[in-house]
Request: fold
Amino acid sequence: MQTNRISTVLCLLFFFIFEQATLLAQIQAVWQGGTPGRETRWECSKNWKNSKVPDEFSDVLIPDVAAGSLAFPELDDLTVSINSLRIEGSGQFVIGPHAVLTIYNGIFYPSEQSIVIHGALFILNEHEVKAGDEQIKALAGKLSY
Reply:
């Protein structure tokens, strides 16, 4: 009887831990852009492949959309937090003058031309801050990491 009780407790403990890990899993948000009249608006859910605006749990991917919508995201007059940001190829991202972006766990982009910062960018995990193969040297606007 005692063995069954221990087995039950262990099963419940395993289930609880597995469920917590699933709930805390990061969600990938992929930019597609091009919504008529709101082509570059970050806060427009239709500009994201999963139709959900990224939040602090999102790993954001901005692909090279040169063959598609030709519209890259712009963050204007918003304060946004995300888990990570990755810009691919000739993808671009603009942080407007009154916008603030906080990234919790890393950023990657192929060149300094990939990201334009007029507002503020805060990166909380500096170990993963990369521009191509180089560490970030200097960018316009405010950069904190």
Observations:
- The chain has a mean pLDDT of 79.
- Residues 2-23 form the longest helix (22 residues).
- The longest strand covers residues 58-62.
